[in-house]
Design brief:
By secondary structure, this protein is α+β, with helices and mostly antiparallel strands. It has 3 helices and 7 strands, in the order βαβββαβαββ.
């Protein structure tokens, strides 16, 4: 699926992105509880369509999304963007969708004037960490045992990449 098209999210993607988010929920990457009905809207005041890029398959189904936002509201930190969500449908995995979304996120952040792009990943999420490392992200910090999930403590790993190189 290297031919997936990456585009900005639209308000009309709300239902599809909500379904994707629920379908991909896993304690491998989620620190919040599994979503339960009734489900609210995917987009809200803190999760705006303009913060998301979506990967669309040839048949126009949404294959995945990435959320790219400022990491803080501080002017002194305005040069940093953070990935705060990446999800790929099961049917689209292994086809380069996550890699394409990461690359598009970097371009998107750079176009907003960012010099750095960061993300947080759970220490036990080896597949995601391997992908991020393959795309040039490096571990910049670890918060040991930051989360208690499924009966065990899990590290929170901060990774980042320079957008100026």
């Amino acid at each position: 699926m290297s031919d997936a098209q990456i585009r900005p999210a639209l308000l009309s993607d709300d239902g599809s992105l909500g379904e994707l988010d629920r379908a991909t929920w896993s304690s491998l990457h989620a620190v919040s509880p599994r979503p339960e009905p009734p489900y609210g809207p995917f987009f809200d005041a803190l999760h705006r369509p303009e913060d998301f890029l979506v990967a669309e398959a040839d048949d126009e189904r949404i294959a995945g999304y990435v959320r790219v936002v400022r990491s803080t509201p501080l002017a002194s930190n305005a040069h940093v963007r953070q990935i705060q969500g990446l999800a790929v449908h099961e049917w689209a995995r292994g086809r380069g969708v996550a890699r394409a979304l990461l690359r598009a996120a970097a371009v998107h952040a750079r176009n907003q004037g960012a010099r750095r792009l960061t993300l947080r990943v759970l220490g036990h999420n080896a597949p995601a960490r391997a992908l991020y490392e393959a795309e040039g992200y490096v571990v910049e910090g670890v918060l040991p045992g930051e989360f208690f999930l499924d009966g065990g403590y899990v590290d929170d790993v901060l990774m980042g990449i320079s957008l100026t190189d």
